[in-house]
């Protein structure tokens, strides 16, 4: 008998020697898989390029603030570094269970090595979910032969910011920006006075407050003074569309002199001026870098907060704690969940908020009533006035700033 030779593709043939014809049937059943594997390898792109492709799809599908986009991009880059750092020519077709095991072994080491704060980069499950997405898309596009998925070991849940107690708040509002001294050693900036009470009485995120401009402080047709959280202005951003909202300015903020401060800024630099002129934009840290350093220091619990509430150095407290305190106080006062979510920027749609509770009252009036009713802080702010701090600030005008020189970030 003659040798049977079956051409499969260019340069590849299936050869069957005499007497092994029965084995030929077995080979033929696997032939399509062999051809598919060959073609898959031939057309497979570099894994590093494919990861970038998936990243671009990821960013196109959903709106992200510049800071969130930067964080997501950084995570994809770390995945690429672990997977292809020692194999720059690695193709998508090489992605297999061994690559997944390599990622699980090396990624946590990289994250710990590059960790800059107590709360950054510790949740590897976020990275595993991104890897699973990359692998799933590769399988869907027939770039790998079987699905790959990392099932992460249960890790410690992301730490939720702890709320401040009334005792904590009393300590924080007893610090140098809120004393009646005529001069202080520290550099007086307007944001150092205003950001804490604004966060405590509006629930605003740090960068939402830092990027405010004079024209964001408005009064509506119902006579309610409001802070408009939006992305209208130079390099302004919001976390998502639900973050776009208007928060009533309560009586406590007015008593501190907030509207007087806004008027001063309007008269000094006009409607488009930053509310806090000391702050500037940074592509990565937006407008909140210096305030974050001031209140939280280089790690959670340090800075102004850790200095005045030493127990917060144990971790769990940061500037987000003002926002959480705001939410929990409203909840404890019986304010509807939908109202709290609306004020925090977790829920959009005024009709959803007011449908069952405030059918005959304008939204802004309803929200102001709920804030006044629900924010029951047992702290004395009666002696704290912007006018006193303004005198300190003006007294420092022209003074050389203390500490080592820094770039204007």
From TrEMBL:
GO biological process: DNA integration; DNA recombination
Presence of the UniProt keyword Transport in the record: no
Keywords associated with the record: DNA recombination
InterPro entries xref list: DNA_brk_join_enz, Integrase-like_cat_sf, Integrase_catalytic
Coiled-coil regions listed: none
A molecular-function term among this protein's GO annotations: DNA binding
Location of the Tyr recombinase domain: 174-373
Name the record gives this protein: Tyr recombinase domain-containing protein
Organism per entry: marine sediment metagenome
């Amino acid at each position: 008998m003659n040798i049977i030779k079956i051409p499969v593709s260019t340069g590849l043939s299936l050869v069957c020697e005499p007497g092994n014809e029965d084995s030929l049937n077995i080979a033929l059943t696997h032939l399509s898989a062999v051809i598919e594997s060959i073609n898959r390898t031939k057309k497979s792109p570099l894994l590093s390029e494919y990861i970038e492709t998936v990243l671009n799809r990821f960013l196109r599908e959903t709106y992200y603030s510049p800071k969130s986009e930067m964080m997501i991009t950084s995570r994809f880059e770390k995945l690429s570094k672990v997977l292809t750092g020692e194999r720059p020519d690695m193709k998508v077709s090489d992605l297999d269970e061994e690559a997944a095991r390599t990622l699980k072994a090396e990624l946590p080491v990289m994250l710990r090595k590059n960790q800059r704060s107590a709360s950054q980069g510790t949740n590897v499950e976020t990275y595993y979910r991104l890897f699973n997405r990359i692998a799933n898309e590769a399988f869907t596009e027939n770039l790998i032969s079987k699905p790959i998925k990392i099932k992460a070991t249960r890790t410690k849940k992301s730490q939720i910011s702890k709320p401040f107690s009334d005792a904590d708040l009393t300590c924080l509002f007893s610090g140098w920006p809120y004393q009646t001294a005529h001069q202080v050693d520290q550099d007086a900036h307007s944001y150092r006075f205003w950001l804490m009470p604004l966060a405590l009485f509006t629930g605003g995120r740090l960068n939402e407050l830092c990027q405010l401009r004079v024209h964001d402080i408005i009064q509506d047709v119902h006579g309610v003074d409001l802070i408009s959280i939006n992305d209208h202005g130079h390099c302004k951003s919001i976390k998502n569309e639900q973050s776009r909202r208007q928060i009533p300015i309560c009586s406590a903020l007015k008593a501190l002199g907030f509207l007087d401060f806004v008027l001063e800024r309007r008269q000094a630099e006009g409607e488009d001026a930053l509310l806090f002129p000391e702050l500037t934009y940074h592509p990565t840290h937006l407008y909140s870098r210096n305030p974050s350093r001031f209140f939280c220091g280089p790690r959670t619990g340090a800075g102004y907060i850790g200095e005045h509430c030493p127990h917060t150095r144990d971790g769990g407290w940061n500037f987000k704690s003002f926002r959480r305190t705001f939410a929990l106080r409203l909840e404890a006062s019986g304010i509807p969940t939908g109202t709290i979510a609306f004020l925090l920027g977790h829920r959009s749609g005024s009709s959803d908020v007011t449908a069952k509770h405030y059918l005959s009252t304008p939204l802004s009036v309803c929200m102001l009533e709920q804030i006044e009713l629900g924010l029951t802080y047992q702290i004395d702010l009666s002696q704290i006035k912007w006018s006193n701090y303004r005198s300190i600030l003006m007294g420092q005008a022209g003074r050389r700033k203390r500490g080592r020189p820094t770039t204007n970030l």
